[in-house]
What we know:
With about 170 residues, the protein is an all-alpha fold. The chain contains five helices and no strands.
Amino acid sequence: MAAHDRAFNYDIDYRTLNIREHPELYRVGKGEQGVLLVQPYKSEILPHWKFKTPEIAQESSEKIYQLFLEYKMKGDFIGMDMARKFLQMGYTRSRRYANHKTGQKYDGPVPDDQKGRSGAHGREQLPREEDPIKAESARIFYGKYLEAREDPDYKRLKKEWQEKYG
């Protein structure tokens, strides 16, 4: 397994770990992995993460992107990556609510062997009627997510991080 392919480690007790004190334990993982676990970043970013209306999504995404830039100024790659994950999650959750009023993609519980899998294959999807308000919130978050993901310094630091720590 190549160093840049190392998955996010869910075996670490993130509730008691300050990753700033042990940055070598952080793994980028895929997508939003660890977004609601890694401290102290979760506590710093989560209070600003909201997407109920486009106005709220605009304010939230701008604040989280500002945190991304502050982490960048401090040379804090983990903070940048966590802010990027929250922006991505703002997009994916808004999109889910835009597609499914309840926020549930499936009719009934997802089987244990399918939890955590995108799409939970084989499940009957609920009918979709797009909510234009949540769709606009998703569009707003997606724009800020792309700004963070495509930031040249973020891309360079991510590559360096993955080469150093895996």
